[in-house]
## 1
Amino acid sequence: MLQDYLGKNLELLSARHKGTFNFIKIFLNQFKESDYIVSETKNASVTLSVNDSEGKSFLYHSRYNPEREALQIVEGCFKNETHAVVIGNGLGYSAELLLDRLPRLNYGSQLFIIEPDPFVFIASLKYRDLTKLLSDNRVVFYFGTDAAGISEQWSNALDWSVMEGLAVVEHQPTKSRFADFFVSLLGNMKHLANRSRGNLVTLMNVGSEFHTNNFMNLPEAFFLPGADRLFDKFKGIPAIVVAAGPSLDKNIDLLKKIKGRFPIIAVDTALRHMIANGIKPDIVCAADSSYENSLDFVGVEDETEVILAAELMTHPDIFKVFKGPKMLVSFGGGLFQQIASYREEIGSLICWGSVATTAFDLARKTGADPIIFVGLDLSFYDGRLHTKGSYSDDILYEKLHPFTSIENETSDYICERGHFQFMGANGKLIYTDTNMKAYKEWFEDAFVKTSAKIINATEGGIVDKSVERMKLSDTIEKYFDKGTDVRKILTEQIGLPVETNVTGLIESFENIRGKIAEFAKQIKLLLPICEKLLKKMETDNVTQFHGKEQECFATAMELHDRICDCAVIVPWFASLHTKFVTKHTSDVIRLRNSKDATNKKWLKVVMHLFSEFDSFANYQLPLVDNAMFELRKKCVKI
C-alpha cells in the first residue's frame, strides 16, 4: 500500500527551501499520476515509471531493490569527495546515500541535485519520505533544462575554495530522456569549473587588492545611484555596446549619427579612442582592480557628460580622478552583502572575465532592443590587440628599445598566445587566445538566452553564432527611427537622491570590527601558551594533555572553531588570506576525517590560524576604521 508524504514533504520544503517550494507549487496541479506511475517494489520500496509525450516509457528504478541499485551507482562514482552533483534525482535514492557519505563542512552547499523534470520531483515528494534530503542545509535543488542557467547557478553556489573533489552521479534513465541536456550541462559545468579554478587562482593572487579597493571606494560609492535605476528604462530602444577590439577603428565615426538617440555603453578600454574621435559614450563601464586598467582614464578624467558605471573593486584612482557622474554596479561579491541592506538597490550585473560582458548585461537589463555590438572582435583582428589608444599600447610602448618596434612587440605577443584559428567573414584566418575564445563561447551562449535581438556590427572578429551580422551603417539606417532622448532619461534617473542608511552601515561595521578585535586580543593571549604546549610535546614526547594544559588546549580549539564559524568575518579573512584559508580548510577537513588526528597535529593547525588571523587583524582594522571615518565625514557634509 503506497503512503502519501506530500503534505509532510512540502512543509519541510517550505521551511528549508522556500524558492524550490514556490517553484514546485506552480506544477502541483498539473501533475498527472497516469504519466508518472509510482508502484511498490519487491522489497516494499517504490519505483517510478514515466510515460513521455511521444509514448515512450522509462523505468526510473529497479522493481526489486532500488536501494541496492542506488548503492551500486554511488559506490561506482563516489571516491570520498567533499561535494557531489546528482544529475537526475528520480525518487532520491542516490542523493540520500551521498548525503550520508559527504563529510560535513563548517558551511556551504555540498550536494547539488539537478532534476530536469519537476514532475519527477513531485512524484518523489508524494510517495517517499524525503526528510533527510529536505532538512539538510547542505542540499541545493535545481530544476528544468536550461543547462547554461543551472550550471551558472551551481558554480555560484559552490565554494570552490573548500572543495576537495566533486563526484558527479548521472541517473541513466533521466539521461536517456534528456540526452542533449546532459551533454550541454556537463560541458557548461566543465567550462565553469575551469573558470572558477582560474578565479580562485586570481583571488589567491589579487584577492587582497579586491578587498582593499572595496573599502577604499566605499565612502564615495555607498552614496552613488545604482545601475538598478536604469533597468527597463530603455525598453524597445536600440543600444550600442562598444568593445575595444581592433575593428572599432573601421566604423567609430558612425556612432556620431546615433549619439543622443541610442544609449551608447562602452568598455573602459575604448574610452580614450572614442573621446579622441569626438564621441562621448553615455556610459563607460569599469570593473578592473588593477592600476594598469586605471590608465584607460588618463587624459579623459574631465568628461562630465559620460557616466562612469563602476564596481566597488575597481581601482580607487578611477573613482578619485573621474569628474563625471558615477553609478554603482555590483557583481554580488566583496562588500555587497554588507551594504545591500543599508541603501537602495544597486543592481547586479554579470562580469564574466571581460568588462564587455558587464556592458552587455547592462544593455540587456535596460530593456534595450536590439543590442548592437561594435568592436567585439575577441581576436587579434588585423594583427592588433585592441583599438588605438588603449593602455595595452602604453604597456607595449614601454618595451620598445632601438632594436624593436611596436609592430614586432605586437607580433611576438600574438605568436605567443594566438593558438586558436577561426575563419573570418572575409575568408581569412583570424587568431585568438584561450581567454578570448572562452569569451566568444560565453557571448554566443548568452545571446541564445537573451530575448532582445542581437546584432554584431563589429565588421570583423569571430563572434558569429546566435547573432545577426550587419554593417553598422545599415543597422543605423534600419533602426534610427526607434531612438529616443537618451540624455533626458539618464539625467532623470541619475539625478534623483539616493536612499541610504549610513548610520546602520557604520554600526554593522563597528560590530564586525569589535569581533575581529576581540578575537585578535584572545589570540595574543593564547598563542604564546600554544607555543609552550607545542614545545613541550616536541621535547618531552607528550601526546596527551592533562589538567591546566588540557584546559588551555580546549580553549584554543574552541577559539579556533568560533573564528571559523563566524559568518561575518570569514569572507573578509578569506579575501585577504585566500591561499591560507583554502589550505587551512583542507587541513581541517582531513584532520576531522582522519583516525590519526593527534593533539600535536591539531595544535599546529590552530596556531597557524592564530598567526594568520593576527596578521589579518593588523591589516583589516585600520582599513575598516578609515572607511568608517570617511563615511562619518560624508554624513556631516550631507
## 2
Amino acid sequence: MSKQKETLNFQAEAKQLLQLMVHSLYSNKEIAIRELVSNASDAADKLRFQALDNSKLYEDDSELKIRIDYNKKNRTITISDNGIGMNREDIINNIGTIARSGTKEFLSKLSGDQAKDANLIGQFGVGFYSSFIIAEEVTLETRKAGEKDAFRWTSKGDGEFTIESINKKVRGTDIILTLKKDEDEFLDDWRLKEIIKKYSDHITLPIIMKKADFKDGETIKTDDDETVNDASAIWVRNKKDIKPKDYTEFYKSLSYDTEPPLTYFHNRVEGSQEYISLLYIPSKAPFDLYDRERNQGVKLYVKRIFIMEATEKLMPQYLRFIKGVIDSSDLPLNVSREILQDSKTVEAIRSGTVKKILSSLEDMAKKKPDDYKKFWNEFGRVLKEGPAEDFTNREKIAGLLRFSTTNDETNAQSVSFDDYIGRMKPEQEVIYYITADSFMAAKNSPHLEIFKKKNIEVLLLGDRVDEWLISNLTEYKNKKFQSIAKGDLDLGNLEDASEKGKNKKIEEKAKTLIEKIKISLGEKVKDVKVTHRLTDSPACLVVGEHDISGNLERILKAAGQNTPENKPTLEINTEHKLIKKLKTFEGTSDFDEYASVIFDQAMLSEGGQLDDPVNFVKKINRFLVK
C-alpha cells in the first residue's frame, strides 16, 4: 500500500462555511465536544443498522462504545469510536465538502421501516468542523468496517487538508484535537465529564474515560475505565417502569433545582409526527423568571442527542417556567443544529406540547386546587402573558387565570373568570374590572364606590402585566370586559328608571358649576361632568372608552415610550361637602385654586403624578389655615 501523503484544497463553499461555523454559528465552544460525541454515536448507529444484514461488519467486536482521552503534555483531546468508520471516498465526500453529509446522505437512502429502525441524526460534515472552534489542528484516523485500508486526514482549517494511508487495526474513527493556546479548560478531567453529562448523558452508547484520582492538588489519571454517561434516556422508557423518585431525580439533574417539582407530565405522540415530551413545573419560581431574554428551561433532543435549549418556536414565552425535554424522531434541522427550520413539524410539536401543558393545568385546577394555588402564586403573572401571545389558545389560557376581586378584597388571586360569571347578577351583561399600579390602589379606587353600594363584583387588576392582558382579551365566553374607569358609566339593567331620572335632574342642576370648573381647569381636562359612580369621594378622573388608561400611560412612559396626549375627564360628586364648598367660592379668587386642588386630589387617587407638587402643598396649607 502506498503511504504517499496527498494535499487537497477545500471547495470554495467549504472555506466560506467553515469561517461561518467557527465565527458565527458555534459561539459556544463546548459544543465542539458535543458534536464529535454525537457524530461518534451516529457512526455506531450506522454500523448497527448495516450489521443487521451483514454481521461480519462487527469484526468480532459488537460492543459499541465511545472513548474520550486527553493529554496535557501534547495538548490533545482524542475522541474514538468503534462505529462504521470511513474509507477514502467517504472522507472526501463527507469531510472534504461541508455541504454534503454522510449521515444525511445515508438517511436519504432509507425508506419505510428501515428509516424507523435507523437511529440516526445529525449532519456529520457540519458537526465535525466545529472542532476548529477549539483546535488549531485536527487529525482524523479511520478505517471502515469490513475493509482493510485505513487513512489519516489532517487540517488546520486554513483552506487545505492532507490524506495519507496508515495502519489501523481497530475499525472506526479517532479524532485528535490539538488545542489552541487559550483552550486549556478542555484539558481538564472534570470539565470534560461535565460537558458529557450536560450534552450526552442520554446517548445510548457508553462514553468511557479513564478514572481520575486527586492527589497533592493534582488530577492523576489511572489505568481503570469508567462510564461517564448514564447511557439511558428516562423519557424513552415506559412510564410504568419509572418510579416517582426517578422522575424527581432526573428533574433535579436537569434543572439544578434542589426542590422536587410541583408536577410533571410524560407524553408520547405517534403518528404523522413522533416525539416524546417529559415536562416539569417547578415548585418555586427562579429569580430571573421575568427576564424574557433568559434561556428556556426545555431542552430539545433529536433521537436522544441534545441539540439546543428550546426557543419560542417550540415553547412560547408565557410557558417559560416549564422545565424538561422534548425528543423528536423526525424534526428537520438546517445547516446548524443551533437553528431550527420553520416547518410544519416544528409547529405540530409546539401545538401539541402547549395543548398538553394547558390541559394538564386544567386538570390540576379541578382535581388538585391546592397545587394549582401554589402554581399560580409562583407563575401566575407569567401565564397572564399568554392571551396576548397565543391567539389559538386564548380562551383556554383565560380559563386558567386567577384574580383578586371586590368579593373578598384580599390580595389572594383566587377567582377565575368562570367563578366571576357564576356570581354575576341576572341583569349584569359585562365583566367589570379596574386596573391600577398595585392591589391596594385598585382596592381603594373611588371608581368602585357605586359598585360596592350595589354589591356588583369587580376584578381588581394590580399587576403590571394586567394592562397587557386586558388590552388583548376583550371577552370571555361571550362576556365582554368593561373598565369602570373608562367612558360614561352605564350599568344597563343594573340601574332602574328612577335612578336614571334622578341623575338627569342632578346634571341639570349642576350645569352652571360644571361650566365654571371647565373654564377654570382649561387645558388640564377634556371635559367636566357630574359623576354617577361616586358615593363617598368628591371627584375622580375618567379616560375615554378607547383611550389608554392612566396606569398604562404611566407604565409606557416609565419604559421610555412615547404616549398619545390623553386628557382625562373630571367627574364631580355634587353631593360631596367639598364640591358644595367649591360652589360657595363662585365669583371669588379662591374658586380657581379650590378647583385645582380637587383636580389634583383626583389625579393622586388615580396613582398619577402632579406637575407641580410643591404648589399643590402650598394651596392645601392656605386652605387649612384659612
## 3
Amino acid sequence: MKEKIKKILLNEYSLNIFMMITLFCMFYIPELIFRAIYTSSTWLFSWSNGSPNLYTFSYIIIFLVLIYFAPLKKRKIFYTILLLIEMVLLISQSIHYEILGRFYGASDLINLNEGSSYFLNSFSYLNPLMLFVIASALLFYLIANQISHKIKKIDFKYSNIVIIFLAITTICSLRVFADYKLAGYDPTLGDYYNSVNFRFIYDNYDDNNKSLFVSGLFEYTLRNTYIYLKKEKKINSSEKKTYVDNYISENKSENNDNDYTGIFENKNLIYIMLESVDNWLVNKDDMPNLYKLSKEGINFKNRYSVQSGSGYTLNTEFALNTGFYSTKNIAAYEYANNDFSASLPNMFKNKGYTVNSIHANSGTYYSRTNLHNSFGYENHYDLDYIIKLTGKDNDYKNDYNLVKEPKVLDLMLPLDNKFVTFFTTYSVHLPYQNNEFCDSKFRDKKYTEIECIKYLASITDDMIGKLVDELKVRNLYDDTVIVIASDHHIYGYSDKKELHKLKGTDDVNLIENVPFIIWSSDLKAEENKKYLGTADIPVTLFNMFNIDYDPNNYLGTDIFDEGYENYIFFMDNSYYDGTYYNEENKGDENILKKISEKIKFNDSYLKSNYYSHYKKSG
C-alpha cells in the first residue's frame, strides 16, 4: 500500500502538480506577508481584501504558464529570475516606505542616481519583519528545487492548447472578479468621500499606498508604470482649463492690505530652503544662530511641509517658488515647460530685482537647472559652476565651506542691485551612519545617528551665522530679509521610535511640522501660531514686499489676510486646525468639500498649464 501511494505521489504527473502548487505559494505568500506587515500604511485596508489577492493570482497564473512551457532544464532559471524580481520589488518598497512613509512609483525612479550613493546604508531601514517575507520565499524556493530535481519530463496529460485555454480563462475570470470586487463609486459625493472607495482609488491611482493595497504588488507595479509612461496627466487638457475657469469664477478673491503689507518693500531677500532641519533641532545648543533668528523674527510654529509629488525636497522647492504643490505622484520637474510667469522669482524680477538660485549639487539632478530657468531665475549656480568659479574642488556640500568662498558670496549677495537669492542647503542630508562629515568629525569614535544629525545641523547653523555676519560687512544688514523654510522632517533618521517621540507624532502628515522663519533687523519678534502650508509662503511674501499679484493664480493665500482660513490641508484630503480630521475622523463637510475643490484646482492649474491661457485671455 505504501509503495502504491509513493508511486502515485512521485509519478511525473503528481510531481508537476506539486511543483506548480509550490511555485504558486512561493510567489503569493511573500507578497501576502508584505501586505500584512504594511496594512497600517492606510487604515482602510486589510491584507485579506479580495481585489489585491485576485489580481495577484492572475499574475501568478501567467508566471506558472511561462514556467510550464519553458524547457525542463531552464525552468529553474525562469522561476529564479521571477522570484528575484519580486523580492527586489518587495524589499525596495519596504525600504522606501520606512524612509518616506509611502511606496514608490515610476515617477520616483529619477531619484535612483542620487540614492545610489546611499545604497548600502539604505538596508539599515529595512523593516525586521521583512525577514518573514524573505524566509517564506526561500523556503518555497528550496522546496521547488527539490521537486524540480525529481521531475524527468513534463507530463500533464493535457494538450498545450487545453492548458493555454484554461490559463487564459482563469486569468480573465480572476481579473473580472477582481474588477467586480472594486465596485463603483458615487461621483456626486466628491473626491474626499470617494477617496476611501476601492474603485475610485483604482481609477485615479494617485495615492501609492492605497493603490498598492487595492491592486497587489504585481498589478500596482505594472499599472503605475503604464499610467506614468502613457502620461495620463493630460497636460494642456481643455477640461482641466475649464475647471480652473469655473473655480476662479466661483471663488474670486482680491488683494486686501493688512498690517504687514509693504513692510519689506524694496528690501533684498535671501530665501533659504533648509535640507532636513527639523523643528526639534532649533534650540540654543544645536543651532544657536537659527534659534536667534527665530526669536528675533516671526517664528511660524504651525507650518507644515505638505507632500504630494515625487521627491520631498523638490515638492517643497516647487511650492516655495510657485505657490502650488506638485500633483500627486508626478515629479515637479515634469512641469518645467509650463508657464511660470507668476512665480516668485518672476514677480520679483518684474520689480527690478536680480534673481538667482544656488545649490551645491548637480544641476541635472531633479532637472533643477531647467526647472529653475522655468521658474524665472536668471542663473542657477550648481556644484559644477561653483567648482569652476572657485578653482577649488572643495566639498561644498558642507554648507559652511560654501559660504566661506568670497566668490560664492558675491553671487549670493550682489551689491549692484536689489536681489533675491534662493539658496538650498545640503549638509543635513542623509545618511547619518557612515557619513563623510561625521566620520571626519568623530574620527575613530563610534557615533550615533543623533550625534551625526546634530553635528551636520551645526554646519548649516554656522553657515547661517556667516551669512548674517557678511550682511553686516557688506552694509546689507538693514536692507535684507532672510526667509528660512525646511524642506521636510528628518525622515532619514532610522530610529523611527525615537523620531516619533521627538516629533510627538507618527502620522505621515503631522510629522511634517517643520521650521518657517521670517527675519529682518527691524522686524518685531513674534510667535505666529496660524496653521499654514508651504504654498502659502510665496503669496505672503508678495504682500510683505508689496509685489502686485493676482491671488487667483495661486493655491496658497496670504497668511496675514483677514479672510485667511486657519487650517492646514493635506493632499489626501485630511486637514488640521488643532484637531486632526482624516479618513477616521471626517470633520466639517463644508471644509472637506472646499479642500477637495482646492486640490482639484491645484492639479488642474498645473496640468492645463493654465497661466499660459490666462496671459492670452488677459
## 4
Amino acid sequence: MLLAGCGPTASDGSSGASTTGGSTVETKPADGSTDQEITYLTSTSPNGVTVQSPDESCLNTVDASQFGMDVGSEDNTDAFNLVLAYCAAFPNTKMVIPKGVYRFNSAEMLKLKEAKNVLIDAQGSEFIFRDIGLFRLSDCDTVEIRNLVIDWDWDYYRPANLVKVVDVGWNYVDFEFTEVDSIQASDVVFETMNQFDPDTLTPGCAGGKEYFLTQLTTSKVENVSANVLRAYDMPILGSLNAGEYYLVRNYSCKSHAFDTSSSQNITYRNVTIYGSPGMGFVFGMGSGHIKLDSCVIGLRPGEENKRRLSTQADGVHCLNTSGHIWIENCDFSFMGDDGTNIHDNVGLLTSSVDSKTVVCQSNLLCEVGHTIEFLENSYAPTGVTAVITGKTAAGSDSIRLTFDKELPDSIQEGCILKNTKYDSSYYYIANNYYHENRARGILAQASQGLITGNKFFRTQGAAILVITDIAQGLWSEGTGVDTLTVSGNTFERCNVGNWTALIDIHTSIFGQSSEYPVMKNLLFENNTFIDFPSELFNIASADQVTIRGNSIQNPTNLLNGQPSRGGIRLQTSSNITISGNTYHASAHMQKDCMEPEVLAKVEGLKVSDNTWKE
C-alpha cells in the first residue's frame, strides 16, 4: 500500500525532492515494490559528510511491550530480540519502548540484522546489563536508535575499582578499595593499573604511571581489612608509593555497547552510555554514513564516588569503514581509552611465497575479490594494485594472499598492503566535549576531516593525535591523512601525563619515522590552548601544514611543565607555515617557544607575525 502523507509532492502531483531545514528529503521504492514508497531525510555537514535517516512521519508505530518486554523481568534478552526481529522483518517501523528500566542477563547479543528504514525510540528507557549480550547491528540501512540509556550493573560485578596505595612493604603492597565498604580477593583481577590524579580523581597526572598484565602478577592476594587487599610479590613493588591512586581494571575489553558492521546510514541520537564492558560505539566492516548526535559517555550522575570509569576502552572506534562519520553535540568522558579513533587497518608484507603470493599480517581486513594497493615501507605509493584471488591462514597472526597477476620484484618484505575497499575519509566532529579520559582525545587517522568547535579538557595524553602506527603484534592503523582542518576548538589542561606534544603528528613504523609526507594539507586555525605541560605541536612526515591565528596560554605552574612548553617541534617535513599566533606572556612559558625547533630535514618553513602578548 502507499504510505499516505509521506514525503513531498511536486507541482505535477508526483513525488519529488526538496530541502527542508538543511535536510534533503527523497522518496524511494521499498523492497522493489511499485506501490509503496519510503521517505528518507538526508543531512549534509559543512565538509560534505552525508547521513540518511528515517522520516518519522512515514513510519508505522509499534509498541515494544507486546513482545514481552517487562521492567519486572530479570532478563529481557529474548523479548527484545523479538522486537529487533520484527524491525528487521518490517521496514518502515517506528518501534516505541515504554519508558522504564529493563534488565539483561545473557551473553546472547541483541541482534538487529538487515533492518531498513527503522526508528527505535526508547523514550528515555534504561537497559542495565550483567553479561556481554549488548547491541549488534549488521547489514542494516537507514536505522536510528534514540533516547536510550545503557549501563552495566556495577552492584552485580565491578569491572574496575579506584584504589589507594596505603602501605608498601618489602614483598607486598596494600590497596584500599576506596569506592566500596568491602571487597574480596576473588572479585579482583589486576589486569591494568592506571594512575589517577589524587586531587581530581581523574585519569593521568604529572609523572603518572601505568602497568599491565605481567607487571601485575602476584603470588597471593588476601584481605587485610574489609576493603583493603594485600598483594604479594608484584614486580612493580619498587615503583609504588603510599598515597598514590590507581584505577585497577579486571579486564580491558570484552563486548561493546553498540557494535555496528556492514551497515549504512546509522544514527544514534540522545543515547547515553554510563557503563560498557568494552567500547562505546564501534563501526566497522565497511559501515558508513554514521551519525552520533547528542550522545553521552560518562559517569552516572550521583554515583561518581562509586565508580570512575564509563567504557572499558574507546568511546567511539571507527575502523575499516566507508567513511562519512558525523559526531556532534556529544559529551565523552572517563573512558578507559581514547575518546574517538578513526582509521583503516593495513598489513605489513612479511614474506613472498611466489610471484603472485605473499604473506602479511592478519591485521589487514580483506577477502577474495578485494583490490589491494601496495605501498613502500615509508607509505610512499608504488603504483601497484592487485585483486585477491585466494586467502588462507598462515599461522596465528598472518594470512597468505594470492593475487590475479604477478607482482613486480619491488613488492617485497616490508611493503605495506592497503585494502581499497575501506576508506574512513570524511568525518565531521563538532561541538563536542572530550574530557577526563585515559589516553588521547581524538585519533584522526583518515583524510578529509573537520574538527571544529569542540572542548577538550584533562585528556591524559595528546588532545589530538594524527598518526600512522604499525606495532609488531599489536596494531597496524592508519593509511595517511590528506586534508584535515582543526579550527575553533578549546584545549584546556590536556596531555596531563605529558605523553607527547599536545597535538602530535607523526608516523611510527615499528618505532621508526617515515621520510615520506604521509600527512598532507593540515590546517590548525583559531584554536585556544590553555595550560598544557608539553610542546604545543610535534610534526613529522608531513607536508603543507599551517598553524595560524591560535591563542597559546600557559599561566599555571605545572609539576611536569617542560622547558619547551608551548613550542613547536619539526622534523622530516616540508612547507610548514606558522603565522599570526598569539602567545600570552607567562613566567611558565619561555618566549623563545615562538621559534620552532627544527630537528631534521625541514624545507619551506615560514614563520611570521606571531605575537608575544604581555
